[in-house]
## 1
Amino acid sequence: MGWAVITAAVLAATPAFLTQGDVTPEDALVAEAEASWVALEARYVAEAGGFLTQAPAPIRLQRGVGLAADRNAQSKPGLVELRQNTPGVLDERLRLALRHELAHQLLWWVCPAASEDRLFHEAFALVVSGELPIWREGPYQSLSVAASELARSPAVDTSRARRALARILGEDRGFPQALSRRLRQCQDGARWVVPVSIDELADVTVKAAAEATVVLSRHSGEVLLSEGEVQRALPYGSTLKPFVMAGSSEPPPLLTPRSGVQEWACGQGLPKQVDGRTALLRSCNGYFLDWGARGGAAADFGPWGAVLTAVGLTGKPADMADAIGLRSTLALSPWGMAQAYRLLAEARPDLIEWMKDNAARGTLSELPASAAYVGVATKTGTVRDAASRPQYGWIVAVDADVVAVVMRPGKMPRSFAAEVPKVLARVRQRPGLDAAKVQVLGLASTSEVEAGCRGVGFAVDQGTPRPAPQGFSQLKQLVAKGPAVCLGSPWRVRVPGLPSEGRDYAGSFTGSTPPPYRPPPGVPTTERERSARRGSDFIFRTTRLQYTAGVVAAEDAASKGEPRIALARVVAHNEQHAETRHGGRPICDTTHCQAFLGTVRVRPEEEKALALPPLKWNQWLLFSQGGQEPWREVRPRSQVESLLGQGVASLRFDAGRVSYIRAQQESGATFDTTESLPCEVLRSALKLPACPRTASFDGSNLIFEGRGRGHGEGLDVEAAKASGLSSDDILKKAYGQPARSSK
Ligand SMILES: [Zn+2]
Ligand SMILES: [Zn+2]
């Protein structure tokens, strides 16, 4: 008594329930239906905050003929089909199924705008029928598992999907607020623009997302800027469309726009036939949906699905609408987005090239900020809430050196387009972000070099990412078909003879076989020297700043202040003047060029050095440890003669060369010749610390004496340390005035 009865008195009449004798007893069935209807309508009135005026249409109740095995009932407007296990008995299961189907009938009647929203219908039916506790039985399901289960069956017509939905609704003990909001929308007669989403039902948007900005180096992979909650996964809108293209088995087709279809409203002057490039620049949903429908498009991102999952995509898209973010079922963090784009830029430069037109003729065109995007590839994304307001705006920007992901809540990408060039400029205040390439590990045998990624590693095979094996594997295999990229961590590299934990290399590797090295005639070289001069099969790319710091650490880890800045300037300069060393190939990592033993922490001196103007000399600049420490080394005469020839008598050292007298025999006669070689040839072959000052004979040995370390030319690092000079003056003293540039 009481409330229900009083409410019933002011409600519209119940519908006429028509039966045909195949579910019995009929009068009890009709009475049950009427009681259920009154309760349902009362619930609706309480939640939607309004009464219903017009009378409902009649509803037929009959036995279901083609019911699936796991269903007790089904319905369409005006018809409910029921399963009756025992004729004459209306058991609890039947009454529950009846209430569920009547809930659908009520919604069809009061909210025709929501007729197609299956998730809304099922959520309402589950809540008001009283069956939630039954579905909640069974093993525990996490919210995220339930969400991805549900995302796979948008029609919610399986028991698995209903169990998942019950789990999501179960987070909220009362009548779900999301459903109340939606019922009020019914009562207002509002258009049903956006269907109910899983997030909305789960009420996971309790804490609003704040702004997030993350910038990665394309070369080293390091995070250059991170502001806000960059690790929080959010719906991503259209930002992953390039991955649909990259993952598809066929090239993007030419498609004909369908007029009058909302998803094909892709801007003014759409051509009669739309190609992939235009579809991407206009972010045209209709193109992607139609391509998905006709087959050949990767709604699951194809091989890129593994990449996106590895960087945190919350599930697999069920269809194209999920993939292109029309439904906000899946989420990805700004950090993960940046990682995925770093690999895309490596594997699919063609798509990045397309995206460079976005500010000229795509989603960021005709804005005051558009001009600031020249040369920058971009992709935008907008996530809308239930009322079609922007919930999250995304801009992904890829330039020659960095990937930036900028997410702003409550904004359209066009409204914050001016912020992104500012973010890029801010990051550029750090010097040396451009690429440096080095031939690495050429002294080791190619098949002995192993690399492992503690993040997620991928080997690119003709534009397609293949997951790298877990742990260490042959670098030769990883780079066999394209670049090898480690997302979220540096590569770790090991070779025999190094500590077994290996060394860090923050950057990407590619394979490139160098031509064989032919020593100049008459210059004696060792096997090791030939290897060093040949270069390496592995080319490592990182930032110029990281490369410079690595060389300075390997060449002179202990120096500080101005001498370190001077050395760093020379090292960075040489990386761009390596053409004389390896004939157009990158610099090597041995003392033949300048030593580089992997990634180290950058010191302030290296940042200062790279912030200074580039050096004006336009050739390779020599440097050495130098110093004045005296040394004395003994070498067998036979070793020296194997280099210089039989009969060596006196040796003299001057101006970087060694001159020597040699007794030669010809046609029985003996005569002396004077010959000379670069001192460096002798120094490196005999492994002397520096070019000697003197050599004397002692029986079957030669005694070499000298001071300091290195070849004694160019920058003398020890002398620089003792000088107290600024880096500019150190360099002038070492190399003189730069020759006038030929440019
Ligand atoms: Zn249902
Ligand atoms: Zn070299």
## 2
Amino acid sequence: MTSKQVVYMNQGQGKTSYARNSGIQNAEQKRLKPMIEAAIADLSGSTSTSALLPTKMVVADLGCSSGPNAVALVSIAIDAIHIHCLQFLQPPPEVCVLLNDLPDNDFNTVVKSLVTLHQSNNEPIVATGIVPGSFYERLFTSGSLHLVCSSNSLHWLSKAPEDLTRNQIPAYDIDEHTRLERHPMVIEAYAQQFRKDFRSFLKFRAKELIPGGRMVVSLVGDFLSKEATCAIELPKKTPSETI
Ligand SMILES: C[S@@+](CC[C@H](N)C(=O)[O-])C[C@H]1O[C@@H](n2cnc3c(N)ncnc32)[C@H](O)[C@@H]1O
């Protein structure tokens, strides 16, 4: 599946940049802190006899964008790892932080944030890297990731639903009558595209996570029915049981 990028977040540090206009998304990232801390605790195997984390860990943020939010989730994860190690008197592991977004993302500013993150954590090392590409495709080597995070990104679909584009039906028709008439069909087409994309996302991450790896993801959505739930069952034989 290819993800052709036609839009991206405003680049740079100017007045209209994403870097200076992403406070709402940052509030959502802060809401994920306890979940990231719980994921780190789970990775340490603290439910069994040992509370030790692995000596090397890989943490990735998918759809990182640019500006301060790009490193927010991985910074929360690094802090959580260090606090956990202090608590259990373990030397902190070496951590590799990988940030992903589509190729047209403003990676220039992201790289500068990664340099700062690397320099402020020199012992033990926090190695950093950029992984450009679509998270609806394979991005990382098999069984290599301990923790995958993603905030405010997974509602971006890989493409508009083909049933609609084939018939030149827009997501929002300016003619109110036509819009209301097609509303259920348009909603269903987008829901189906989301299901297809999200299934691919889970399938590829299941390959890339270590056995017992963890994912913390948050995305914008709408509760269309009372049955909508936050618990998602991953396909059988995936490394992680919960997200
Ligand atoms: C609203 S920004 C969220 C950025 C950041 N995670 C935050 O919480 O502020 C959504 C980001 O997802 C990226 N994105 C969308 N589709 C993607 C895909 N298929 N693969 C990788 N990144 C994608 C966009 O380029 C954009 O930078």
